[in-house]
Amino acid sequence: MKNLQIGRVKTFEKTKLAGCDLFAVHPILETIAVSTKNELILLEDQVVSSTINWSNERNGVQVISLAFRTDGDQIVAILADGRALVIEDGSVIELEVAEIENSTVTAAEWTGDEQTLALADNQTLYLADSSLVPFVVRPLNFSESDRKSVPVNVGWGSESTQFRGSAGKLKPGEKIEKEREDVEQVSKQTSVHWRWDGEIVAVSHYSEQSKIRNLTIFDKNGEILNNMNIRNIYLSHCFAHKPNANLLCSAILEQGSDDRIVFYERNGETRNSYVVKWPTNQNESKRVIEKIEWNSTGTILAMLTVYENSRRLELWHLSNYEFTRKLCWRFPESESSVIWKWSTVDSQNVEILLGSGQFFSVHINPVSSFSDAISQNVVVATDELRMYSLYRRVVPPPMCDHSIRCLSDITGKLFPVSLPEETMRIYDISVSQDSDDYKFDSERASIDEVLHEEVTDGIICGFVYDEPTESFIIWVASHGKQIICRVGANFEKFLEGDNIGWMGVNPQNSHIEVAFNNGKFLDLTTSDEIFKIEEFASVEVHFIQNRHVILADNSTIFIDSSKVSQDAASIMTRGNDILLIDFDNKLRFVDVESGKTLEDIRDVEAGSELVACDSGSANVILQAARGNLETIQPRRYVMAQTREYLDKKQYIQSFKWMKKHRVDMSYAMKYKGEELENDMVIWLASTNDSQLLEQLLVSCTEVFEFEGSSLCMSVARFISDIEDVDRKTKMFPLLLTALLRLKPSKINECLKEVQEHVEKVVNRKDVFTRDSLHHISFFVPAKELFNCALSTYDLKLAQQVAEASNYDPKEYLPVLNKLNRIGCTLERQYRINVVRDAWIDAIRSLLVLDSSEDRGSEEVWWNDIKDIIQREWLHQKALTLVNPGDKRYKECCELYAIELERKIHWREAALFFELSGNTEKTLKCWEMSRDVDGLAASARRLAVDSGKLKIHAIKMSTTLREARQPKELAKALKLAGSSSNQIVQTLCDAFEWTEASREVEVGKEESLKIAAVSRNEQILLDLKRRQTEFEKYKKRLIVVRENKLKRVEQFAAGEVDDLRDDISVISSISSRSGSSKVSMASTVRRKKQIEKKKSSLKEGGEYEDSALLNVLAENYKWLENIGNELSQLIPLLMTTGHFTEALKMKSVYDEFVLKLQKSKASIWPENLSIQQLPGPLYTLFDPNQEPSPIPMPPIFRLEPELVAPSASFPSVFL
Q1: Helix and strand counts by DSSP (H, E) for the chain
Q2: Phi/psi at 879 (nearest 5 deg)?
Q3: What is the Cα–Cα distance from 132 to 89, expressed in whole angstroms?
């Protein structure tokens, strides 16, 4: 699926080279050596540097091999008579290599490493070493026994086990008897060629005795390996090894027809898997193949042919096992010779020397044939132009969507151009250079142009169609120069120069652009330089909007002059994307605007190349290394196509597309949002494919729970309202799926829908029911579905569900039969609920049975209710089934109250005992809960006698006094009718000064005053003591931190070897003694020891700073509690006349508060330093750490004592 594009062209013309017979190019120095009859001419930089006269030494004998010796300064010329001429420093040395009997048929060739020379005539093969000394002389005519028996690499095993076609089917001794035709040999010349690795040499020679040409293979030591099978095959003299493969390509003769080629395997049998697309134009002249040669990579096969008295150089390319001719250069009849070969340095360079003295070095690059303008692959195939729409469907060669037959050989191809009317015109160029006309022929148009004389004798390297002038622009290399000109009646030369590497048309402005090998791009229409890139031999140019996307031969990608990638093996453009396959065999995407590689990456087969893609499709076509075509859909283009379908509201197409490409269908909801549900009628009315829409609902509910449930509900309502029975039947599985995917699933509604719709179905009702239940069973476990069927109390439906769910009949049939025998409907429902383990429904059924008239006087049903409630712990749920006016309401409340009492939930038990009407239990539970307010409130609601209430209050006060709850005790004493002095004293003990002042009787305030003054004095003493201690501990903390900082500085300076001090070392040793490092008990013990040390204020202790922080933090908490008490005590002191005491207390309190607030920042700083971390230093750092400045450990634990306490204290007002 490629065409051949010409890149760099080097050409010059020297009249002194006229009449040349061979040439050689130095692979390093690029010096050209040209042999003529009398001289050996050396050229450097296209200038003749020296001339060596060898007429005497050569003596008119033909030169059959000319080569540079890269290991020295020698040039070796092998003559047809077996002699060798070695040219060194301008002198000619003559050596005798072999004695040749017939010098007219001799051939010679060096191995690639220049170590072995093969020289042969039609009788003998000579192998000589690098010193031109023969070491093997082998006759070419040999018997079958002389062949070397070695394993071959076709099939398995040795040669004797190889299958050899029809010959392999013969019986022992039997031969194929077929008379050979008398086909005249065009040339009796012997040909000899080495394989690329120098291990095998093949010789094609003509036997005068048998009148047959044979092709024989020898190893590098001259041992005979094989003879090619020539049954019914008439070999020509030219053949070639395919590099990197055990294949030979040989020209063959056919009676009355053009020469053809045949491919041989190493075992001598022909390979028939290749198809060669020969031209179909029939003329009287016969095409004769003179020379065949592969390039060094084996991708291009070049042939020199003679046709109609002129020579042609044809370039063939293999694609999908089909050989097609891509280029054909015809040389004038006046050229006495055409000498050519592939470059040994650049595998894509072919070097040509004409007899007139013109030299060409042409870089040929296989490029993708995809045309962005028409989204088709336009492929040159010998004498036709093939059109492929691969992005729609893969059509492998030789088939195609459309083909155009040409009148003569194609020398190139012009891609279609777009006209203003948005139509496409396809131009196919046919060149017939034997006459001076330039013909175009296609199925749509015909244009005849006359070539100017300046372009008829050269190589056409490229051409474009200039739409504004409706003429052709040609790039030609001729007579040592390159020109770009308009052909036809209005001949015009635009450019003449060197190093032209590319020519094309910019589709945005229809300007003709030219690129030079130095990297410069020129607008030929305006003569302005566009931009410049790095030097190149050939480029592949794509246009995206106003940008050039360029792939150079060194695998570099440029967007205009900006380099974006250096490892591209193949590229293609689509929209604003550049698709590239890199050297890691990954398909990547580059945004042409930003030049950045996108995140989408896909692995592809090794050796794959991009062939086609189109912005209207997600398909990208790859061609694998073996030639087969593969279609892939990159995820980004699949998603783009999905969005396009959704935007156009082609929902069914988008759903099918997502299903085909395994895109989660929830993407439709993610992209469209609520619009998907709003357009539900559109996509539900467009299809009856229930399975497709089921997959949509399942995907949406898995990802979007709320939105998916809303969509399912809408779909279920829509299908339920369908009146057409047949359509609803088709969409019924979708209805079931919609109900089952709701949160929570509506299984019962599904079964109800089945029951209702089966009555409307006319035919095969049992099949519909079975299919529907089977569908439900995919979503619901069998046990759950069976229970839901039982919940409908339809035992027939339950049996159908069990059968559809593949339930074991031994399990469900006995149960259903037992239930069917129960006559009472209510009791049957109760028994069904028991089978379902639906205990709430069972209690509900029992409550109905218990309230029915025929229940009798026995409490059978109520006993069952109590048993279920107590066994299944359904006390609370059972209460939701009865109302306050129901018969069993109080019994249910009492059951729940007993359970709460058992769990020691006294308050809740008291409330439910109250609802059940059990007064004694109610008061007892309130008494046990120690809730005086609850006891009083419940006694009021139940109208309890005051004496009885007083007894319970006295009991409660005793309990509260023992529990030391003075506040509640005061309430109980008040409820029990105790004296006010006793109540006030209790409140004073609880420091509830405000409440005490409210309860004191008038004239009896003395006890309250005494208690308040006493408490005031005690708090004052505590405040002063704590202030003193706070200052003491604060100063000590500063000292401890300074010591730690000093220790760290000493360690960083290298003054001490360890961060431990003496006490830490002793403590660490004692804590480890007698304990195992892996013991869990030891770890727990160690933690307890640390916590104990954190509570010790012993000076010098390991955790002294932690203990100091804890003590200082405790002062903050204590002062906060005292502040809350003083907010009640100080106002009481003021009202009782103790103004001085109140003012003094407020002053001391405010002073302590201010001190704590100011000290907080220094004790617990916001930015911690190493000395402020509590605990020993050695626990913070790695003991193996080198001494260095240590600002902070990389990781440390935030100990609880580092958390600063609150410094917001209550405000005390007078």
Answers
A1: 31, 56
A2: -65, -25
A3: 19
CA gyration radius, the chain: 52
Say if residues 779 and 745 touch (Cβ distance below 8 Å).
yes
Helices assigned H by DSSP within 616-704: 635-647, 651-660, 666-672, 674-678, 680-685, 690-703
Tokens of 414: 């012009």
How far is it, in rounded angstroms, from Cα 425 to Cα 371? 13
Burial 2-27 (b: 16+ CB within 10 A, else e): bbbbbbbbbbbbbeebeebbbbbbbe
Compute how many other C-beta atoms are within 10 angstroms of the C-beta atom of residue 869: 22
- Distance of alpha carbon 692 from alpha carbon 385, whole angstroms: 43
DSSP state letter for 15: G
Residue linked to tokens 């040793």: 1069
Order of strands across the sheet that contains 275-276: 275-276, 322-330, 310-319, 300-307, 288-294
Distance CA 617, CA 376 (A): 13
Contacts of residue 789, defined as CB under 8 A and 6 or more positions apart, other chains included, come to 751, 797, 798, 800, 801, 802
CB 1119 within 8 A of CB 985: no
Contact 32, 25 (CB under 8 A): yes
With beta carbons less than 8 A apart as the criterion, state whether 7 and 366 touch. Answer: no
State pLDDT tens for residues 544-600.
888 999 999 999 999 999 999 888 999 999 888 999 999 999 999 999 998 898 888
Contacts with 274 (C-beta within 8 Å, 6 or more apart), sequence order: 263, 318, 321, 322, 323
The pTM of this model reads: 0.66
* H-assigned helices in 680-781: 680-685, 690-703, 705-720, 725-740, 747-758, 765-779
CA 1040, CA 720: separation in Å to the nearest integer? 81
> At a CB cut-off of 8 Å and minimum separation 6, what does 404 contact?
384, 385, 387, 426, 428, 441, 442, 443
Question: 32-35 and 22-25: which strand pairing?
Answer: antiparallel
Give the tens place of pLDDT for each residue, 1034-1066: 998 889 888 888 888 887 777 776 666 544 444
Residue-level length of the chain: 1214
The set of long-range contacts for 467-472, using a CB threshold of 8 Å and a minimum separation of 24, is: 467/417, 467/419, 467/505, 467/510, 468/510, 472/429, 472/438
> What strands, in cross-sheet order, belong to the sheet with 200-207?
191-194, 200-207, 212-219, 224-227
